[in-house]
Automatic annotation (TrEMBL):
Residues 1-22 form the signal peptide. PROSITE patterns: PROKAR_LIPOPROTEIN (PS51257). Keywords: Signal. It comes from the Bacteria. This is DUF1795 domain-containing protein.
Length: 212
């Protein structure tokens, strides 16, 4: 029996279609495709990993904000998004800055040579500053503000510890940006806490330390 022209034409067309499928990489049988359950499981695993990464990043950011100096006996919560200046920081304290904004905070321990009282310390620290305004809170704490004469405002919190040593926190920012930084500075200085120091083994206590 003679095949009709339409049948002869259909055979090469079917062959060409098969070749096109092969060229597109779609040769696998339907049974080898991942099931909807497999796809859902993979999506859930990816979402869980992403959430874990976000949580880890948030934890690292929080750890970077919470500065604790056990050797000198103080801690503070630094502003969110600020960067620590490793070169300016040392075993006695830390410097953190708002990148590109000209604002920074410095918190350091010092021995208080001569065992000065807080009044004497404040007088020495504010000498040469402008628009000095502040208050003593009891006999061992001072909070105040001033201008450094170079266009910057300075907020300070000073604490004299029971052993006579000092914790000084200064928040410096451009005077023209006072509205932006005043609340940040107050909140940061409020977070300063002092506690009994735990010096590393073998380190001598401060010269002015008192037994108690």
């Amino acid at each position: 029996m003679t095949r009709s022209p339409s049948i002869r034409l259909a055979l090469p067309l079917a062959l060409s279609f098969s070749l096109m499928i092969a060229a597109c990489g779609r040769q696998e049988p339907v049974g080898d495709l991942p099931s909807s359950e497999d796809l859902a499981e993979a999506a859930n695993a990816a979402a869980a990993e992403a959430a874990q990464n976000v949580s880890r990043d948030e934890t690292e950011a929080e750890d970077n904000r919470n500065y604790v100096n056990n050797a000198r006996g103080f801690s503070i919560t630094l502003p969110e998004g600020w960067v620590r200046d490793a070169a300016a920081s040392n075993e006695n304290g830390v410097v953190s800055e708002d990148p590109g904004a000209g604002a920074d905070i410095r918190i350091f321990w010092s021995q208080n040579a001569g065992d000065k009282d807080l009044q004497q310390v404040v007088e020495g620290m504010t000498q040469g500053s402008e628009a000095v305004d502040g208050d003593f809170i009891g006999t061992n704490e001072y909070r105040g503000t001033a201008n450094d004469g170079e266009g910057n405002s300075v907020a300070v919190r000073l604490i004299r510890k029971p052993d006579g040593s000092l914790i000084t926190a200064t928040f410096v920012f451009p005077e023209m940006l006072s509205e932006q930084y005043l609340a940040i500075g107050q909140r940061t200085l409020d977070s300063l806490r002092v506690f009994t120091a735990s010096p590393p083994a073998g380190e001598a206590p401060a010269d002015n330390a008192t037994e108690g």
